[in-house]
Amino acid sequence: MAISLIGLSPRGDAGVRFFSNSWEWHALVEYFLGHESFLLNEKINLHFLSSGTELSEVECWKFLDVFAKNFDYGSELVELPQELSDYITLTSNFLSNLPDMECQSCLGSGHQRKGIISPLYFEPRVACRECDGSGKSRPYICNYELSRLTSLNFLNFLKFCGGCVVE
Fold first, then answer.
1. How far, in Å, CA of 104 to CA of 20, rounded?
2. 89: part of which helix (H) or strand (E)?
């Protein structure tokens, strides 16, 4: 799953399209919804943007203002605002300190499981693809880590898209 935003009146390459996998999109949404100044959440449900949802250029700038107060409308951002950078660092540290858990694909056996109805049937000579045979894997929440590059691309998209539509 992914989200794809298309610029309505893009000014330069940065405003043409923004694409994010659903994992990183959820992390961006969490950041937005943690801000009292973010007022668009009454208009749209950020978690489930549907195809065809449009945001005007002013609404995109409201999004951007959550991230980057007093931004320069003319040039691309080359570094993240400190608050967003701190959020990414904090989230990354939290996720990296979570303990591994029993692999849900092989139920901790380390062997590839065959079938759903008979989940105790394992292929003993084939290592589980999820955990590489260890029986342990990272918690799924670790997939929600937000990258600095995606965040920067999103900020610059908002800045230069001239309004956008969800594809």
1. 26
2. helix 82-96
